[in-house]
Write a structure and sequence with these properties.
The complex is a heterodimer of chains A (266) and B (332). By secondary structure, chain A is mainly alpha-helical. Chain A contains 13 helices and 2 strands; from the N terminus they run H-H-H-H-H-H-H-E-E-H-H-H-H-H-H. Chain A has 2 domains: 149 residues, no CATH class; 70 residues, no CATH class. In chain B, strand 1 and strand 2 form a beta hairpin. Chain B has 3 domains: 215 residues, Arp2/3 complex 21 kDa subunit ARPC3 (Orthogonal Bundle); 32 residues, no CATH class; 33 residues. Classes of the chains: A mainly alpha (266), B mainly alpha (332).
């Protein structure tokens, strides 16, 4: 399958996951969004050498992946884009920071190795947390939560329309690419001579489509301040989710939980 | 150039989010003032277009490799810089949520590094200045290449600063710059050529779609080219002054690396850049490092800590296996 087809399939898969009826999917999007942002802030707030502190934060995605019945494999597959960049930045740390930091069973671990591992773990955890949010919350719900946070309607509506139309335009781009590659077999990309006309035509078609879309939205009564997103109110289970996870995450950040558990045995 | 959450600290994220939010608020104000109700749906579809266009690979002549489009300058050349900027925010959010390309917390950084420079500097300063006397194939090509190269260099420079002040990499600032800027020079050139090809096609097919072409905008600009260049020069002097302080205070990246590797010299913990970065890192550390009474190490990485991680992982895996077992029994 082509790269474009893969992208369209990924979006469809995430939308399918988000529309399931699990306990986590039923939680209101606003607490889920706030807890995710808090989690990201807490994870990246650890200093570069606090490896066990960062590892302790893995408890949150691990538990919620189980409760949300989500696959770790799919989440890890998403990391193919961003993780190499993080690793590239981190992999140089052992070269530049050779100060011994701790000794485990006679093996000295340098500060650079610790910071490299900590950076990689942070990279993995932050991607998992974002996946957790989008795989259990529909785009419409995320947009509803953004509106509740008073993010301007123009931005939210635009984001929603991008999400709705991205699969349409991806399939259009895929068709164009398939047609091109059938006439240019074995070619790795679009040749320089066709750059302008290929993307240009897609752009012109998109503009025409946007006008048609606007007219159809007007016919259905769309105005700039219209709300496209019916958002339900917060229930007690949502408040419980927010309070319990906020407290747990802050406790995990403040107390060295893993170190305490380890001391019981070592 | 997308930054991951792991590459920044909360303070950097907050500062960049505030800067991007300011630019977004100004853009919303300008788009609303245009009073064009069709703008929002057009922005939505164009955002989806940029996303789809980014998926198409382009063969780079003579290299055998391929590149793709980023789209900030192209969007601005069609929608204008303000609507283009807002559309790029949507595109970056989609990339972050659906493809893990860039972090949610680092969204402010990514908006600034890619959308702000591409739309405000690329379109408002470079594209508009070159197009003020009308469009031609040569001018479009020049504006596209200059706009893409300069804005990508600025974006790559910002990535280096944001990573450096976050203190996540031990790589010296100069070495980081030396790695980032040449790569993005090549990327910018390819991006500029693709953008030029597409915009030349649009100019031939539907010239009325292009923004900022001289004959369309007769209203005098608020800032003349001279004033704009003056502001840029003043900003460059301030930024350059600060950077020269940083450059003079830090030893050469390779020398520093060699000293560290050989273990013969200590890095002097003094100097403008070192202290400035330290102050930023201190200010941005929202929670202090925990030092538990009787803890083996204040850094928090201890043998018992790692043993705790292993034990916790085993317990969690056990719980997960039990949950799977009961779930499969219920389904079966």
């Amino acid at each position: 399958m082509s790269r474009i087809g893969n992208a369209a399939r990924n979006i469809g898969k995430l939308d399918e996951l988000a529309r399931r009826d699990t306990w986590l999917n039923r939680i209101h999007p606003l607490p889920k969004l706030l807890v995710t942002v808090l989690y990201l802030v807490l994870v990246v707030s650890f200093s570069p050498r606090q490896l066990t502190g960062v590892l302790g934060m893995a408890i949150y995605p691990f538990i919620l992946f189980e409760f949300g019945d989500l696959s770790f494999t799919s989440a890890l597959y998403r990391m193919r884009i961003i993780l190499p960049v993080v690793c590239l930045v981190g992999v140089l740390n052992p070269i530049f920071d050779r100060e011994p930091a701790l000794t485990i069973f006679g093996v000295t671990v340098t500060g650079g190795v610790l910071t490299m591992l900590s950076l990689m773990v942070k990279g993995v955890l932050t991607v998992l947390a974002t996946y957790l949010l989008i795989a259990t919350t529909t785009v419409e719900s995320v947009c509803g939560a953004l509106r509740m946070l008073h993010i301007p309607g123009i931005l939210v509506t635009e984001f929603l329309l991008i999400c709705r139309y991205v699969s349409v335009l991806l399939s259009e781009a895929d068709r164009m690419w398939q047609a091109y590659s059938m006439r240019a077999p074995g070619q790795r990309g679009v040749a320089a001579g066709a750059w302008g006309s290929m993307i240009g035509r897609l752009l012109l078609r998109s503009m025409d489509r946007a006008k048609a879309l606007y007219q159809s939205m007007c016919l259905r009564g769309f105005r700039e301040n219209s709300t496209l997103l019916p958002v339900k109110g917060l229930e007690s289970k949502d408040l419980f989710y927010f309070a319990s996870f906020t407290t747990t995450l802050i406790l995990l950040r403040i107390f060295p939980v893993l170190e305490l558990i380890g001391r019981l045995f070592v | 150039m997308h930054m991951a959450d792991a590459l920044i600290v909360p303070g950097t994220a907050a500062v960049m989010a505030a800067a991007s939010a300011g630019a977004a608020a100004y853009s919303i104000y300008k788009v609303r003032r245009e009073n064009d109700p069709a703008k929002v749906p057009v922005m939505g579809v164009m955002g989806a277009f940029v996303f789809a266009a980014q998926m198409i690979n382009f063969t780079i002549p003579g290299t055998g490799s391929s590149g793709h489009l980023c789209g900030g300058l192209m969007l601005s050349a069609v929608l204008g810089p303000y609507a283009g900027f807002l559309t790029m925010i949507g595109v970056l959010l989609v990339q972050c949520l659906f493809f893990a390309d860039g972090g949610l917390l680092a969204l402010g950084c990514n908006i600034w590094n890619m959308a702000f420079y591409g739309c405000f500097v690329g379109a408002l300063l470079i594209w508009k200045s070159i197009m003020k006397n009308g469009a031609s194939k040569k001018r479009i090509t020049l504006a596209s290449i200059l706009g893409s190269v300069i804005t990508l260099q600025m974006g790559a420079f910002s990535v280096c600063i944001e990573t450096f002040v976050s203190g996540v990499s031990a790589l010296p600032f100069k070495a980081f710059l030396a790695a980032m800027l040449p790569i993005h020079l090549a990327i910018g050139l390819v991006e500029g050529l693709i953008t030029a090809a597409v915009l030349c096609f649009i100019h031939e097919a539907r010239p009325e779609l292009l923004w900022g072409i001289g004959t369309q905008e007769r209203a005098p600009a608020r800032l003349s080219l001279g004033k704009t260049l003056g502001i840029i020069a003043a900003a460059a002097a301030v930024v350059g002054g600060l950077l020269s302080l940083a450059a003079s205070a830090l030893p050469d990246g390779l020398e520093w690396a060699l000293e560290r590797v050989a273990g013969t010299a200590e890095l002097p913990a003094a100097g403008g850049a070192y202290e400035a970065a330290g102050a930023v890192q201190k200010a941005t550390s929202i929670l202090p490092d925990y030092a538990f009474p009787g803890s083996e190490s204040a850094a928090g990485t201890t043998v018992s800590g790692l043993a705790g991680a292993l034990i916790t992982a085993l317990i969690l895996i056990g719980i997960a296996l039990a949950l799977h077992f009961f779930r499969s029994r219920r389904r079966g």
